Amino acid sequence: MATVTFRDESATGKALDEFTLPDLPDRVSARELVRLRVREEVARHNAGPATRFNGLVRPLEAEVELNGQRGGPRRRVDWERQADIAERAFQRNGFLLLVGERQIDDLAETIDLTADPVVSFVKLVPLVGG
Q1: What are the boundaries of each domain within the chain?
Q2: Who's near 51: CB < 8 A, 6+ residues apart?
Q3: Mean pLDDT for the stretch of residues 3-13
Q4: Topology adopted by domain 2-123
Q5: How sure is the predictor about 64, in pLDDT bands with cuts at 50, 70 and 90?
Q6: Could you report how far apart the first and last alpha carbons of the chain are, in Å?
Q7: Could you tell me the pTM of the whole model?
Q8: What number of other Cβ atoms are within 10 A of residue 105's Cβ?
Q9: What burial letters (b/e) apply to 59-86, b meaning 16+ CB within 10 Å?
């Protein structure tokens, strides 16, 4: 089993945020990796007291809150919906996926996490829509 660090980076390579997940399979597809990352960050958000979601894909409720138009009680974020949006964003070049120093171009690509345990997400545009 592999331990992987998921890192958000700016377009200039500056680390913005990161978290580590243990006990992942040694080999996974890029699609599974994106979905694992989104599922974990949504689970952390839903379990915690924060009202603002800070993840790969920002739900529409978070966008409204950022604009100062927050209304109603906090809603739980649906990880599957967010993961689907993240997949579409990847396919539209909304973010780059780097494993080690290598850019991943295809969500079907298999990744050996024992060889490259750092996975970086470089957001090229704000990813909103959930």
Answers
A1: 2-123
A2: 65, 70, 74
A3: 90
A4: Ubiquitin-like (UB roll) (3.10.20)
A5: very low
A6: 32
A7: 0.82
A8: 11
A9: bebbeebeeeeeeeeeeebebeebbebb
Cα angle 112, 109, 127; round to 5: 105
Name the token pair of 17: 């945020």
Residues 6+ apart with CB under 8 A from 102: 116
Angle between helix 79-91 and helix 30-47 axes, rounded to 10 deg: 140
Task: Please choose, from the candidates 8, 30, 10, 9, the residue with its C-alpha nearest in 3D space to the C-alpha of residue 19.
Answer: 8
Give tens-digit pLDDT for 83-117.
999 999 999 988 999 998 899 999 999 999 999 89
Distance CA 91, CA 106 (A): 8
